[in-house]
Model the fold of this input.
Amino acid sequence: MQQDLNGRVALVTGASRGLGADIARKLAADGAAVAINYFNSAERAQRMAAAISTEGGAIAVGGDVRDEAQVAALVEQVTKQLGPIDILVINATGPQPMLPIEQLSWRIMLDQLEFFVKSPMLLAQAVVPGMKQRRSGRIINIGSEVFEKGLPKFSNYVSAKGAQLGLTRSWAMELAEWGITVNHVSPGWIPTERHADNSQASKDAYAQRVPLKRMGTPTDIAEAVAFLASDAAGFITGQKLSVNGGNSLE
Done:
């Protein structure tokens, strides 16, 4: 579905590949100028920016979204090159090890919290003042169904995703008076480059448990994000939109 995002500036973190790349392409196709944030994949991000620059326009911006100084620098770069950020999509993630309780450490827990609590905090602190001045803005967190499903041996990731949902709800209430919406897109298992080593049998088994009997695609997630970024979703805030074929009902 086409959304009208002309004149908007979007920053998508972790957008050089995976879900972030499809989200960036969709926002650009709908008319937004898009900043493609990357950490290590500069060449890939620059190729992406060149490929979609004929749509809404795009630039590649490097930076570790867990680092305060780098977040400030990348937001400044986006603002100088494209304009004030209207749409913030918080998507970046790192390794997601599955470990039993006995093998967990606080450092392992913090690794996930830095992506899903610290990074959103730093990014919000960088863009919210401008959004407040304009009395408009969209913040969209990319979550996961794992918080509802409670996967075993994944408590480091599951708990951090739960905290991210908590941020979404609290910030939505805090920022509503400025016309800023904050929502949470919660995908099911969407195969991307990250899952190249997962067997087809495991994917088929997962799909069979999904009521719609298929796995989702990155396009499914990108469409949901574009909707929440649009004027059509202006009266939606503090919500978790599960995009998982009915695999969870919360």
